[in-house]
Amino acid sequence: MSTETALFSIQNLTKHFPVKKSGVFNNQKALVKAVDGISLDIAEGETVGIVGESGCGKTTAGRSFLKLIEPTSGKIIYKGEDITNLKPGKMRPLRAELQIIFQDPYSALNPRQTIGNIISAPFEIQGITPDGGVKKEVQRLMERVGLNPEHFNRYPHEFSGGQRQRIGIARAIALKPKFVVADEPVSALDVSIQAQVINLLEDLKREDGITIVFIAHDLSVVQHISDRVVVMYLGKIMEISDSNNLYSAPRHPYTKALLSAVPQADPHIERTRERIILSGDLPSPMNPPSGCVFSTRCWKAQDICHSKTPEMVQVGQSQVACHFPE
Amino acid sequence: MAVKIRKSRELSSSRASTGPIVGRSPKQIAWTRFKRNKVGVVSAIISVGVIVLSLLAPIVTRIIGVDPNTLHLDVLDVTGVPTLPHAGISMAHPLGLIPGTGRDLLAQLLYGSRISFMVAILTTSLTLFIGLVLGIVGGYFRGRVDAVLGRITDFLLSFPAFFMIVALSTPMVDRIQQTGIAKGNGARIVFLVFFLSFFGWPYFSRLIRSQAMSLRERDFVTAAQAMGSSNRRIIFRELLPNLWAPVIVFVSLSLPGYLAAESVFSFLGLGIQPPASTWGILLSNATRFVTTMPQFFIIVAGSLVLVVLAFNLTGDALRDALDPRNDR
User: Which end of chain B is less crowded, N or C, counting CB atoms within 10 A of the terminal residue's CB?
Assistant: First the structure.
């Protein structure tokens, strides 16, 4: 797929956070390279999973896609239009089409507003009156996400985590968005509730053709819902591959290590399977290793890995940033 | 696979519907919690009662049949102390007479509380307004504006405000009178209100700023931004409703504070001047008769302590009731 045909495309996106070193008069600034030059094309109707361990920049990437965090450099292209430098006023109409679902269902809802007010906020902000009035539409949305529409006048604290997540989803889909970033929407939920929320997202994807970027650290959840999976490490993309292909034939050593950490349900396989245990800690994003960022923990690393940053190359059905792909 | 995927939407929507369901708002919950606190309820009744009595002073005094300005010089001895039994406390004068002039103490307390409360309420409102606006601006917009506001609050907080009032009272009041905004005690009230607010807002602004800073990072604010909400809407619809708990607590704690402050400055002769009456002036007057007629001092000081305590305890009770973690 190329940038021209993609619904949503990012090119060389970076987000660096300045961090002040201690001292009142010492203004020495360090940079946390949360997202460091990632490029991705997303087709209409596609679900792209982003996986990676804590602190790899998944969330920052997801939020900068929607310009909720201003990217440091790079381009964000939506429907062929460069939206990177759009002013908030110009951005407002587009916001109806680009939405986000949050990880923490407790922080995502204003405790002082009723569910009715929370879900009708998108209509109020965008100045849209749906057919049949706002209240009716809100109740339809509540029913759609599996909530009792009579709970219209209740407050967030009266709902469980899973129900709150549904409220967040109802708000996100209220304006029939085309592109939704789901930022770890199930990591804060119990496994049984995770399944309900994932089913709901799949329904939305199938019935409304919503394009979803699904950020998670649970590999099995990502495999289930995604068409393609992006593996991130320390602000960079390591591998992009079709969902099934990634799990059956990981090309990047990091992907392999990540997959080997998933426990198997069958105790016989679990006992005998080979596990890759990475040595060392995640390097600081303030001072990432030179060359390939994974080189400090990679068992295949050679001299070139420490000196030269690997380009994205096509290997089989995957795109891999590695000098020695499998 | 770790997640068992199953159709389970029916589970949550099949709940039996029993008429329209209305949730209990955070306000209603706080109210139920507040009602359970006996001390808080009594304090709140005293606080509200005193303010109402103060506002209705002319009517109340007429009903009781006392008058603040009638002198009873005939019953005073040479030192000014009433010669009546119990220092003049009787059916006609429930709290007795003021030594020196023989005025009715209850009527003087009621009328005096009007200026005291006026100063306290005006100062609290002004402090609240400035603190709220600058706190939200600093905490929400951050950046350079916040840095400038932060230095100003630092400066004001480290300022010896008390000595400034002592030093500037007379020249500033003269200046206000010259500009013709207000005359006499009016000018003194203006001075007190502005001076106390000027040095008072940084405390409140700090509190609000920290709250606004923590709120703006919450996901519901990000959600509002993702929907294309303006800053104005975020401040009024997302932030302010979450700030009214600290606001109520601040009001209930700073009202008695400024009430006491007015008394202190009037007591020192820096605030309101006689013949107008405030609690500070009455207290100052009472100290002269503390050995010859202790009732006077005890009644005035006791009233002040009672009101300040009632406001403070109301504030404490409100803070407890509004704290969502405090789920008793």
Answer: C
